Amino acid sequence: MRISGLASGMDTETMVKELMTAHRIPLDKLNQKKQYTEWQRDDYRTVNRTLNDFKTLTNDSMLRQATFIKKTVTSSTPEDISIKNINSVSDFSGKIKVKQLAESATMQSTGEVFKSEADLTKKLSDSTLGLVQPVGNFRINAIKEDGTFDSTLNAGYEVKITADSTMQSVIDDINKNSGVSAFYDSHTGKIAFTAKFSGDVKDTSETVKNPEIVFSGNYKFLGIEETNVIANKNGNGTLGLNAEFTYNGLTTQRQSNTFKINGFEISLKQANNKDITFSSSPDVDSILESVTKFVDEYNKLIEDLNGQIRETKYKDYQPLTDTEKEALSEDQIKKWEEKAMSGTLKNDSIISGVLNQMRNAMSSVVGSVSGANALSKLGITTSSNYLENGKLTIDETKLREAISADPNQVYELFAADGAKDSEKGLARRITSALDDARTKITTKAGSGTTTVNNSFVLGRLLEGYEDQMTRFEDRLATMESRYWKQFGAMEQAIQKANSQSTYLAGMFSTGS
Question: Per-residue pLDDT averaged across 425-443, rounded?
Fold first, then answer.
């Protein structure tokens, strides 16, 4: 603790503080530079995220063929069949006559297995259950998703019985891991099994109906027969059936009621053996919405980036020091910093570069595409208002016509690939420009996940400021200590002089 001015009567603490305030001016300048560089780094990173968001939109819409092959499919009886496009670029039409729907094989217990649901949670070893058949591991083999059946030894899933097994745990295991689903019916006391995949087992050489569900091992305690074929014969199950239908004059079958033809997914709902007509056409509204959203987001990006490089830079408004903030209100600080933070990316070459690349990409021709090989062919043109800096406008009527005529050609305009840039689609050129700009920004300002400052340009600059400030603060501490020593020496000298003066005064007083 320092007590100053006792001998001299001077406010040495204030004097030292004022002297140090003057000496701190270079340190405040360094701190202001550091703060401005941090603002600039953060603004670069915000731009980087904005570019990435637009790239993601471009990839998810204009570079996905699924965006442009959306189709509206109509049928004469939609309650009988439903059709949707999966990956076809062509339209789809014709007739379907459904003779039989696909069905899954089933099996049920031949009689009551348990008297109530409460029995399901008892251990299988409980004598009150009255299970006289051997209880042990058993295996379930069932038809696969592709319609085949593995008849090799030990095929299928083995249900293992332990000392703690209950019927509920067995049913849960079957439902989770095997090719069938099972449930207990409390009304009949039976257990029912259904193959998870429908259809008849594929075997063109079969002379006897092959089963879709087969049990082996110690399964008798379930009260069921060995296969669904046997169960069906005895009235305790059904056979797996394929869907049978005639498609454009061709009579054929499918294992499931849902299947694909020419890139369209067909779902059969009812078997009524009558002709059902269907047809498809481009879903113009959906495709138009995707293209319009892309153009709107492109225009927002253009506006944002132009705002960044044209934002006014107020050179007279430097970042506030802590001392300056103490003298201002919160509202004054806010208004000051709005101007101080303005223009951090003014005339930035990286942003100017990506803007030029995107404008050039959107106004050029795609050499690998015939017909609609430029945006203007779709009714999308650059605004005639130069103040809009290259924003795009849409003639919706013309765009609708282009989509209706050939939606896949619209897709190719955006997504075509090629060895040369001139052969690549507009969206591919855009994403390439975005990637290039994002790489440059990351090199200069890092990313949101960057934790090491010396890995990017502005980070190294910030570390340089930190080092300078640390060294300067050490010098200020030494300087302040020297001032206090000097004032302390002055106080001691004055105190000594005062003591001598008092002594002399006392001597003269005694002598008189």
Answer: 96
In tens, the pLDDT along 381-412 reads 999 888 888 899 999 999 999 999 999 999 99
CA–CA dist 408, 85 (Å, integer):
14
The answer to whether residues 190 and 257 belong to one domain is: no
Of 375, 313, 376, 368, residue with least CA distance to 345:
313
Spatial neighbors of 199 by CB under 8 A, at least 6 apart, are 102, 104, 143, 147, 212, 240, 241, 242, 243, 254, 255, 256
In a domain, 77, yes or no: yes
Same domain, 312 and 430: yes
The yes-or-no verdict on residue 244 having pLDDT over 70 is: yes
Same domain, 351 and 445: yes
Write out the residue range of the structural domain in which residue 369 sits: 51-65+286-453
Q: Tell me the per-residue pLDDT of 140-154, one tens digit each, with 9 for 90 and over.
A: 999 999 999 998 988
Full-model pTM: 0.71
Q: How far is CA 259 from CA 80, 82, 84, 86, 195, in A?
A: 15, 11, 11, 11, 18
Q: Of the residues 434, 453, 472, which one is the last residue of a structural domain?
A: 453
Of 265, 282, 299, the domain-final residue: 282
